[in-house]
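Aim 2 progress update. The chain analyzed this quarter is reproduced below.
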Amino acid sequence: MAKKKRVEQDETTGLEPQEAVEELPFEAALQRLEEIVGQLESGDVPLDEALREYALAVKLIRRCHQVLDQAEHQIEMLSRIDAEGNPVVESVEDETLGLESSETATSSRRSRR
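Predicted structure tokens:
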């Protein structure tokens, strides 16, 4: 019989080890970010803990932006039309969008606005 591993939360992130920030769904990252903001705004957190929480908040913000950028890209892929007004069908799943290319695409879209 296999032994169950005792899973403890990482002290620096408050997340279980397998829940790396880079893998969190948007909703979970946002919820954890809101918790951190509440803790920091309360002013009841010791400085060293506040700094750890702030560092985690920055990572969570980056994760949220990454997920939103990917969602925006998928929406753009799904809503493309050709010159004749017909939808252009492309497979969103086939396309891999790294954070670097996502940031480039986002900055180019923002510069057009």
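Residues 22-112 form one domain. Confidence is low (pLDDT under 50) at residues 1-7. These observations will guide the mutagenesis experiments scheduled for the next reporting period.
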